[in-house]
Design brief:
six-stranded mixed beta sheet; 4 helices
């Protein structure tokens, strides 16, 4: 299978998150402000279990597309799960953690690529 572009991978992640009823999905283009990744996908689940389900869905779709995550952090607690897909990094939060860390503000200079309320 051919290598997906960062945008195609982010679109796949958004689709996987939507399939698991993620809320407040945001894709930020961080390529000009960090070398960590090209795109961040940030989303929320209503509970730890839903955040874990979102992470599972993202991981499954990424692997099916030929992209094995470099790492998954925070899965056991399910409050903030980070999935490193290389040029795309996924952040799935419960609302309280998302409000606490406010990545949208931290990376506020990054252009918004996709916003799904």
């Amino acid at each position: 299978m051919s290598e997906l572009s960062p945008r195609a991978m982010a679109d796949l992640v958004v689709e996987a998150a939507e399939d698991k009823k993620a809320e407040d999905i945001l894709v930020l283009n961080v390529s000009e402000i960090t070398t960590i990744a090209d795109l961040f996908v940030i989303c929320s689940g209503r509970s730890e279990r839903q955040v874990q389900a979102i992470a599972d869905g993202v991981r499954e779709k990424a692997i099916a597309a030929g992209r094995v995550p470099f790492g998954v952090e925070g899965y056991a607690a399910g409050r903030w799960v980070l999935i490193d897909l290389g040029d795309v990094v996924v952040h799935a939060f419960v609302p309280e953690e998302r409000q606490l860390y406010r990545l949208e503000r931290l990376w506020g200079d990054a252009p918004v690529v996709v916003r799904i309320a």
